[in-house]
Design brief:
16 helices, homodimer, disordered N terminus, 7-stranded mixed sheet, Aspartate Aminotransferase, domain 2, Aspartate Aminotransferase, domain 1, alpha/beta, 12% strand, 2 domains, 4-stranded antiparallel sheet
């Protein structure tokens, strides 16, 4: 017990003085799967001024529309709306924002109504609520190897098993079913990020998207589409979201199996915590009940401010951030070409915030990070945490969203040196 | 399936056209316990101008410090803090707010540090996260008969059983343990609101608080103290929170078993969704991990604004709202004395927002509400939803926080008429 509690932050001195409870014995079994993430510990490194960081996957605060938010908040807190802006509100979210999102979703090929949308506190909350809605203990979620670490953390609270999302052509549906049943549950959903995924930066082709829908149809499961980065395309043509392709097959959102999770965190600002889910009404109405029971509603004022800023200039904001991030993406790819030793490979993303680097077999990302911080003062995220099966030790994730172009070249040069010595 | 899906909001027409999925078959078993609440449906009635409503338990928006929030938000979005105000932030919450709360908790008799505090999106979210932390399927939570409906809804997601929280003197600890074990789990915590509880408005005496701590100590379980209304005392002396009494017994917060859930919703404004949990570090550090996985953090800007407004004038705001609500409490008690028929009894709260009315046996609060809306245009909340065992049909909850004194007398007169006819 003492080891567990020390990991959890209790001080040995306080323990000795206080005769604390045996908390782990009281906790639910799921608490065993709640562990501090490497990314979170690494975020602390961003405060050290001499470290060049490719670690945190966060947007550049210089690109936030701060003035626009200031004006929107001031307006919301004056006149007729001021009481409502600070009052309790409905769990499904602020109706004008949901109606704006109907138009936004239509521009992506998704025909829906405001009743197909619930507002969440970022898309991270959507993942938590979807885990809560679908996963009984022992059920199986299909995820990529690697996948978004935050999705694994959100789902872990519901004690699922994970299986690898691969095309039907490579593995029959019966095999997924039997594997899940052997572990005491059923396959409930496939989770995927189709555009500029965290951590790889990769985009699924239209045929890869179709293949996921084929598998989901064959297994009769849901598809959770994490679209957090979808608006951050820097070149190439847009590919319809999984939800749009699903609707094109089935005829309507009510007949579709795809649950789209969107976010304003990467486009407007993450600190307001506003995202949304768009899906068939039976899913949305359950999510509304989950939200009501879990936090009543997302902050009213924040939803109003997001609505004002989005409806006044979402496309202009997208154009601004795409230009900035495109230049940084170009800079990091050029620097990698210039400085990486032979045997190192990496992705070439058309958008998003990440480049995924594969090191020669035998490298360990975590050990490399320790060495890199000590000798070269450069930070990144070791890749293993993104693999549900604990593989991927020889991978690392680089984020280019917060580094200046000059820093990018210097940082990648340093990284090349530490890998070259490894 | 069709009945279930229609309840969930899917239109029969869409079903017929769309061949929707059998969603309930995919949902986790816990989804069966997610039902729309009577309170939520009733909130829709507040929009009808001729209804006098004692239904929603919401603060009066005229009392919100809207100007102070406007100034705080404008300041946060100017100068040095503007990037941070809109950026991702740490899961445990904004440090200056946590430090202000250390001082606030000290004024309540709770000595702690900022590491004993995590910021949540209202105290509702704290209840969800504590359910997640403690309750495996089949475990038992001890709650009052009646208790806060939102606590039952939050805990229900984790599929617990409920047992009635009664003093040790009336029921031996072994009986609680055996009852829980027979249902396939263990007793994990006692949940209680010590001051001006929702729905009864009642306050636990210091000896009743001690008795809860005695029971929890005997059972070696946690105590969840829901302090959402604690600051709303209109007369009488303050009684130390359960957490303060626990610390007085055990010597330190690290040795205590009480988990205090606070909220700014009833004092400053609910729409910003800011609350907190104060407890021993092993609990807080797990809640931080839960929050990280569930929604990353509460909105940064909102925490900054709450900190500014609270640190500039929390006591003055409390004085203002106490004066207003005290007058309404006096008005509703006087009106009940004046207009209630014989055989009806009610609580006489020293604070909070609620009076709890017990009607003669044979009355049904839900039927009375239907009749009352039809004939007298007065709304309230039927009491049965607050009972984990489904009893309490002859009780109703009246909220006086949002009604003017003149409306209160007229509304209670109408209510007296409809009960008198019943």
């Amino acid at each position: 017990m003492s080891t567990q509690m020390q990991q959890d932050g209790a001080q040995p001195a306080a323990m000795a003085a206080g005769h604390g409870l045996d908390w782990p014995a009281l906790f639910a079994t799921r608490a065993e799967r709640m562990k501090a993430s490497e990314i979170r510990e690494l975020l602390k490194l961003l405060d050290q001024p001499d470290v060049i960081s490719f670690a945190g996957g966060i947007p550049d605060p210089a690109l936030f529309p701060a003035e626009e938010f200031g004006a929107a908040l001031t307006a919301a807190l004056s006149g007729d709306t001021k009481g409502a802006a600070l009052q309790y509100s409905v769990s499904e979210g602020y109706r004008p924002l949901r109606e704006w999102l109907v138009t936004r979703m239509a521009s992506l090929g998704v025909t829906c109504t405001a009743d197909n949308i619930v507002i969440t506190s970022g898309s991270q909350q959507a993942l938590d609520y979807l885990g809560k809605l679908f996963l009984s203990k022992g059920d199986t979620a299909l995820v990529g190897w690697p996948t978004y670490l935050g999705a694994l953390q959100a789902f872990n609270a519901y004690e699922p098993n994970y299986d690898r999302l691969t095309p039907l052509a490579n593995r029959p549906a019966a095999d997924y079913r039997e594997t899940a049943a052997a572990k005491g549950g059923a396959v409930k959903f496939a989770y995927a990020s189709a555009d500029f995924a965290n951590p790889t930066g990769e985009t699924l082709s239209e045929s890869a998207r179709s293949s996921i829908l084929d598998l989901a149809t064959e297994l009769d499961i849901a598809v959770i589409e994490d679209a957090a980065y979808q608006s951050l395309r820097y070149d190439g043509d847009e590919i319809p979201p999984l939800l749009a392709l699903d609707i094109a097959r089935t005829g309507s959102i009510e007949a579709s199996r795809t649950i789209y999770c969107g976010s304003f965190s990467k486009t407007l600002a993450p600190g307001l915590r506003v995202g949304w889910v768009c899906a068939a009404k039976p899913v949305i109405s359950k999510l509304v009940l989950i939200k009501q029971a879990a936090d009543l509603h997302s902050a009213t004022l924040n939803q109003m401010a997001i609505h004002t800023v989005a409806s006044r200039g979402f496309e202009a904001q997208l154009a601004k951030i795409r230009d900035s991030y495109r230049a940084r993406r170009d800079a990091i790819l050029a620097a990698l070409d210039r400085h990486m030793p032979d045997g190192v490979t990496w992705t070439r993303p058309n958008g998003g915030m990440y480049v995924w680097v594969t090191l020669p077999e035998g490298f360990d990302g975590a050990a490399l990070l320790a060495e890199s911080l000590k000798t070269e003062r450069v930070a990144f995220v070791p890749g293993r945490a993104f693999f549900a099966d604990g593989s991927g030790a020889n991978t690392i994730r680089l984020s280019f969203s917060c580094a200046s172009e000059a820093m990018i070249d210097e940082g990648i040069k340093r990284l090349g040196r530490v890998i070259g010595r490894g």
